[in-house]
Write the structure tokens for this entry.
Amino acid sequence: MNSPQRQTRTHLISLFDELGLHPRGDLGQNFLIDLNLLEMIVHEARLGPDDVVLEVGAGTGGLTTYLSAAAAVVSVEYDSNMYALACQAVAGRSNVTMLNTDALKSKNEIAPVVMDAVRRELAVDPKRRLKLVANLPYSIGTPVISNLIASDLPWELMVVTIQWELAERMLAKPRTSEYSALSVLLQSQCHLKMLRKLPPSVFWPRPTIDSAIVRIDPNLERSSKIVNRGEFQLFLRDIFTQRRKVLRGVVVNLFKERLSKPEIDSVLESMKFPPDTRAEELEVDQLVELSNRLQRRLQGETLAATNDVVDGQ
């Protein structure tokens, strides 16, 4: 297999001039041109022959060539011009599947064609492991990461380049302005590590903001404590839209069709929350436990209702 193509700034400028192309800002086309950083990303991903890499945002194929030198790759690129360049960069590599499509079906779901391609690669050998390794377009960083975590795909690791602001939100602590539903969702299921802050100068064209390389590993011990991951995600979304309001009022309004105020008060009192508690003040484990207790209360109500129907028969 040929060595990875060295897609430096000079190379890309020459290539785009030759083809009459221009990077598209609306698609977040900022290409990582620091070869040392590309090598670092691959090193942190700890790739081997049993790995299947999902790459979202192939661009011109600069990172794709590095990835495919070590593992099977499913690479997604939305822009048809960039897709053609990426295909050219990995021409002859039978371990690369290139997809010219949107990686997302919606903000809440990875595109089925992408899921199917990944599943086919994983099915080749039961020892295969899935890793997301990508210079993610800024506009889709959050949904790609969160939807992969929420999916049934057996992902083992993520090493991604994202905007600095998103990295801060992912790692944020309670009582900070960056603390959000995303912070809790990720920290409740993953180990997160900031690997490197990146200045605009390592990209071409230069973005106007800093970026970061982040590694995400599953935290099975923490995630196993979540009663219902789908409901937990919806719960976080809803209470953090009103993160500064008193928690009791937010929860009462959220569950008004399903739980009475005395039932909600019983749950909150059992967790010994002060009356003026707000969502933005709670630790990750507290939010997981609150969601679990509310879900169990709902399940108990459902079970009781079911038994009433059976008894009535």
Remarks:
- Confidence is low (pLDDT under 50) at residues 303-313.
